[in-house]
Amino acid sequence: MLVNDVIQSANAQAAASGSQASGNSAKELGNNFMTMLVTQLKNQDPLNPMENSELTSQLAQINTVSGIEDLNATLQGINSQIEAGQALQAAGVIGKGVMVAGDRILVGPDGASTPFGVELENPAEQLVATIVDGSGVPVRSFDLGAMDAGYQSFVWDGTLESGEYAPQGAYRVVVEAQAGDGSALDSGTFNYAVVQAVSTDRQGATRLDLGGISEQVRLQDVRQIL
Prior knowledge:
The chain has helices at about 1-15, 25-45, 50-90, and strands at about 95-100, 105, 115-120, 125-130, 140-145, 150-155, 170-180, 185, 185-195, 195-200, 205-210, 215-220, 225. The chain is α+β, with helices and mostly antiparallel strands. The protein folds into two domains: about 1-90, no CATH class; about 95-225, Immunoglobulin-like. α1 packs antiparallel against α2 (about 25-45) and α1 (about 1-15) runs parallel beside α3 (about 50-90). The chain is elongated, with a radius of gyration of 30 Å.
């Protein structure tokens, strides 16, 4: 039936286009539907006329296509507002310290060091952090005790096993987490960085420029703002 062909074409275009405008709008499809419907009514078999239920169903499908088009436009507007809100929120953290995925620790004068963070999916009975230098040699290891599932930040006092302050420079932290039965647990580490600028990528997502300490990250990737 010609009317059904119009309906199928409308549904296919609505599914394929998403929020993008396609060849025909729902209004144009509706006009085409009415034109073909009138033609069909004029040429239908008087002994086998179109059922009222069939006509109602086809009209409902055209209205559905129009509703989908309006909904896509509404969602696109909402997404634009959300992206603008994220950019505005991200601008508020420029110049502030954040904790993002990474294992780098910077040590300054008198052992002053940047914090590091740990994230666990499951509770740990024991958490051990090992600080290694640029050559991969361990310079300090300490027990952080038990830790619940989730995120927590820590600060190394900058001292070596000998008790002296570590030389200034960049170090890495390696974390080992164990459950109560002694089995190893997966853990994620986070390092400190200062937000230098905010930008958007080609997809419109907001990115934080961390000044080379870490790659640009999304706002939702920040675990803590200091």
